[in-house]
Fold this protein.
Amino acid sequence: MVRSAESQGNLSGTITGWMDVRLTDFGRKQSFMLNQVYEQHQFDHVHCSDLRRCVDTAFYTLGFPSDDDTLIRKSRSLREMNFGAQEGLHYDGLSQEEKAKLSEPAYQAPNGECWADVRLRAVDYFGTLAKGSHLVFTHGGLITSYLHKAGVTQMPNNCSFLGVHLEDQGGEFRELAF
């Protein structure tokens, strides 16, 4: 799994969730640098969130493929948490209590999702994958909620790369490889 590169929302400190924001110049550079890693590995399939920041991260990482609509399987299931009424708010404008709640496993966004919903979306999606090696471009919240049981409690940095072995059925992970 790859977390999307730095977006305009990351740079400005905005809670973006399902908002469709673009990558920053630095985010495009991060993605393009991942191309070197991508070229050293074989993947049977490529998947990504349908939000622009993930699509662009994949596009740059894959070296500007002309057939990206057939090469990359885009899905709403790989989106970040829907933060509902908090979408578009500036993180620093939240109270300390609100900031602390955001990272709690039981957090429920007002008029949005809870972390368990995000994890369930990930499990359901990964349960549909055929055997093989998959490259998945998604978001920090989805990665963290999916891997929370493996001890991943801090959101990975933008453009971080995490390797996971999945169970043979059901979409659960068997182990965190790296």
